[in-house]
Amino acid sequence: MVCGIPAVLSIFMLLATLVCIPALPFPGGEDEVIDIFSRSAGGGLGARNLKKFGENLPSRSGSTQTQRRASASNCTLLTEHEAKKLPGWQKIIEHADKLWGTGKRNIKTNDEHEPDYPAKICIADKIQISYQGAPSCMTENVTTDGLLSGTNGTASVSVTQGFSASSSFSLSESATIGVSQSYMTMLNFPEVASTMQDFATSVSITNYVSDYFTSSYDEMETVTLLVAVSDGHRCSVIESVTTCTIEGTGELQFIASGYIWFEYVDPVAGHYKYSVMLEDVLPDPASRSSYARFRGNTTAISRSSYQATCKEVS
Q1: What residue segments make up the domains of the chain, in order of their start?
Q2: Residue 66: which pLDDT band, with cuts at 50, 70 and 90?
Q3: Which of 138-155 are b and which e, b meaning 16 or more Cβ less than 10 Å from the residue's Cβ?
Q4: CA–CA separation, 189 and 210 (whole Å)
Q5: Which residues contact 89 (CB under 8 A, 6 or more apart)?
Q6: What is the pLDDT of residues 248-282, one digit of tens each?
Q7: What are the boundaries of the signal sequence (predicted)?
Q8: Cβ atoms of 249 and 129 closer than 8 Å
């Protein structure tokens, strides 16, 4: 909860002796400046001694400054409508009623007059994929002929070695907050022993049922082999190519954080406007979260072994 700094100098000097709240942490992005405001005395009520909402608010200048991290692309703004869908919303209301009463009021998030006190929805920057069952694999041999370079010389053969994977997923269940919003994240695919290596890919996911998204990973490289060729022989390289397909699922946790503003029609203890920080009242992330789930298939290709052979040309 945050307390505003009145414009009157004498009050400002009094509040300057109080404890300051720290800057809010935000994942990723660029550094930007925010203001610091003092806590109010005797219980730390987050209040703004402002004009009634709707009137022009005075600008704040000359305040102490610190740094925060601007929100990254895995976050969007939380609306009042979405806030009311949070599992712990009733605790927020009870908290406000207890401190400031049940008088007529408006509830806001991301107040345009309070840009330094946002409310956001964020997902993790890494999502773990869980495989369902064992992979279905097939191995085949691929033959590549060499190019002869002179009699009793060498043949050069280009072979592809390495690992690649492609995935396609769709949302089977969407979250109740951040609906139709797009989020960037990384998908972590675990290793499957003797079959698939672990890897990670970046994706953009839109939070609505049946959203379809894909990802790909490629670390294949081409290697040129030189094979000694006897006169009258032709050489080639046989590569072992293994293709595996496996089903996977993932879960996205949409976590709300930041400030809810209660704007009263009539002043309460001399103030019209109070704030509640979600993390203060709902410290358990599950009480301010909603979940989306997705499933789909991953196909991985491994090209890891080869053998050169030479045969006499009849």
Answers
A1: 9-122+256-284, 126-252+294-312
A2: very low
A3: eeeeeeeebebeeeeebb
A4: 21
A5: 83
A6: 999 999 999 999 999 999 999 999 999 999 999 99
A7: 1-23
A8: yes
CATH architecture of 126-252+294-312: Beta Complex (2.170)
Tokens of 285: 């992330």
pTM of the model: 0.70
Q: Over the stretch 163-188, which tens digit does the pLDDT of each residue have?
A: 999 999 999 999 999 999 999 999 99
57 Cβ contact partners less than 8 Å away, ≥ 6 residues apart:
50, 51, 113
What is the C-alpha separation between 20 and 181, in angstroms, rounded?
A: 34
**How many CB atoms neighbour CB 293 within 10 A?**
14
Contact present, 37 and 5 (Cβ < 8 Å): yes
Could you give the angle at the alpha carbon of 9 between the alpha carbons of 8 and 12, nearest 5°?
90
- Name, in order, each residue with C-beta under 8 angstroms of 296's C-beta and a sequence gap of 6 or more: 167, 168, 169, 170, 247, 248
The H or E element containing residue 214 is: strand 212-218
- Kindly report which listed range (2-11, 15-24, 149-158, 222-231) carries the lowest average pLDDT score: 15-24
Q: What is the pLDDT of residue 73?
A: 77
Which residue bears the tokens 């100098």?
A: 9
pLDDT number for residue 311: 79
- CA 207 distance to own-chain centroid: 12
Parallel/antiparallel/unpaired status of strands 182-189 and 126-128: parallel
